[in-house]
Amino acid sequence: MPATTLGTSEQLLAELRLWVEQETPTTDPWAVNALVDRCEAELAAVGGEITRIPGRDGFGDTLVCRTPGAAGSNLPPVMVSGHLDTVWDHGTLAGPMPFRVEGDKAYGPGIYDMKAGSFMAFHSVREILRQKIPTKRPIVLLLTPDEEVGSPTSRDVIEQTARGARAVLIPEPAGAGGACVTARKGVGRFDIRVRGVSAHSGGNWSEGRSAVVALSRLVLQIHGMTDLAAGITTNVAPIFGGTRPNVIPPEAGAEVDLRVPTIAEGERMEKLILALAGEQDGIAITVTGGMNRPPFAENAEIRALYDQAKALAAAAGYDLPKQHRGGGSDGNFTAALGIPTLDGLGCTGAGAHAPHEHIVWTDLAARCATLCGLLEAID
């Protein structure tokens, strides 16, 4: 158990509720920054060394908080990184997903992915500072604004900070059975645009070249690249095309999600998808994008971190299994740099990005104890 006093699950939920009821869609930097303001004020008040990196390209700010560690240690720090943005638009709380508690479940937009985990990281660092608890190494806390769209503005900060770290902890949601994450697939994102030739669908059908038909063929081709046995999946969505039923559509487009288990497979699949571009018979296809998050592979150092977390979890009264997960996170970036990274250290629950999103709030204290224990004890 950590030396830091963290409080009960009821107490943690009461403060977490304030975070959930402050909506933070990725696309609204002012909303995200309102929560950044709250975190900055709380951490600065207890002596955190704060760096706030202004947002750009329509995203919010990134907050960095450093603690001194034992006796002002200058050893490489332990980094813990969470995101404050969610996929949920303004008005979700007032409409289909109000914050509510039903038994041991607490519901609300972003509560599972990943406001509970980010709050646990924030709360652990704040209380370590407030209570002046010595840690074996300094701690660096990152709270970022844009993970849900691939971390386009925070990736550089994450990677730069991780390069000097002893280990990285990612409090993304726990998986099935409360599992933490020791490996993740790499993620690729692509954008497809198809240009055809417009024509009247009745009087001049033969003069047209349907961008929608061409896109449909591409969708089936990309879908056929999925190889479940090899751990490769593709998904095409959303799609668009056409204007009216009586007009041969001159434009269509789609986005593509790619998941791969290894860097080599990522490179191979990226080439295959980009090679779909070209021109033929009045149809022009452009494909842009590529691998966004490199694969995150388990190794001996990550297993050692996991063993330490498992022992802390046992002391907190629960078992901590591990899993390899298909979804990406900011842990993909840090693991690919060779920094030992343990992910999925957030709260138990289910329904990420879905209307039934929830946490098992009664697990908050125990899960937070494990995260805080790692922050104190990693040497």
UniProtKB/TrEMBL annotation:
Per its UniProt record, the required cofactor names are: Zn(2+)
Q: Which residues form the Peptidase M20 dimerisation domain?
A: 182-279
Supply the alphabetized keyword list. Answer: Hydrolase, Metal-binding, Zinc
User: Which Gene3D superfamilies has this protein been placed in?
Assistant: 3.30.70.360, Zn peptidases (3.40.630.10)
Q: What InterPro entries would the database entry show?
A: ArgE/DapE_CS, Bact_exopeptidase_dim_dom, Pept_M20_glutamate_carboxypep, Peptidase_M20, Peptidase_M20_dimer, Peptidase_M20A
Name under which the protein is recorded: M20 family metallopeptidase
Which species does the entry assign this protein to? Falsiroseomonas selenitidurans
